[in-house]
Write a structure and sequence with these properties.
This protein is an all-alpha fold. The chain has eight helices and no strands.
Length: 173
């Protein structure tokens, strides 16, 4: 066996399992949180907290195969908490995305800024439904589970959110 060509298998147990999930999904979850929050640092913090929670609760999971769905829900809840805290501290009109890092600069390229600003103007449930359904491409059932609502609620929130986005973007032109 050539040690240069082999990749070591992740260690067994919660550490290895959570590490493997983190390596496979952290970037996408940071993008999700970034879309919700508009702040790279806060997005990374929320994702880190979600994976920490997953690690702490690993042995209590009913179905470890659903761990990423649990983590996605945890990221959404973390984003809700951050937005709730922000709304108490700073008026929503003053919130602007923090584009200091290179990754944030790529994510918030000029052609996307208007869409991101419009997304942040949507009510929370509509924003979550649109982001999960259309930005991440999740099926309605997974969106419903992540949001803790029915599929019908996902459908109506997505429809209303897309209509509101169209109106907001049209007004901005």
């Amino acid at each position: 066996m050539d040690s240069l060509t082999e990749t070591p298998a992740p260690p067994a147990g919660p550490e290895g399992q959570v590490t493997a999930l983190y390596q496979a999904h952290a970037t996408g979850l940071v993008r999700l949180a970034m879309l919700m929050l508009g702040d790279q640092g806060a997005a990374e913090d929320v994702v880190q907290d979600a994976f920490l929670g997953l690690y702490r609760r690993w042995n209590g999971l009913n179905d470890p195969a659903r761990a990423i769905a649990y983590t996605r829900s945890s990221v959404l809840n973390g984003c809700r908490d951050v937005l709730r805290r922000r709304s108490r501290k700073v008026p929503a009109a003053l919130l602007e995305p923090n584009a200091a890092s290179a990754e944030a600069h790529v994510l918030l390229a000029e052609e996307h800024r208007e869409v991101l600003a419009a997304l942040r103007r949507l009510p929370g449930r509509q924003r979550e439904a649109v982001v999960l359904r259309h930005c991440l491409g999740l099926p309605e059932g997974e969106v419903a589970q992540a949001m803790g609502v029915s599929r019908g609620t996902v459908k109506s929130a997505t429809h209303r959110g897309l209509a509101a986005l169209a109106r907001i973007l049209k007004e901005a032109q």
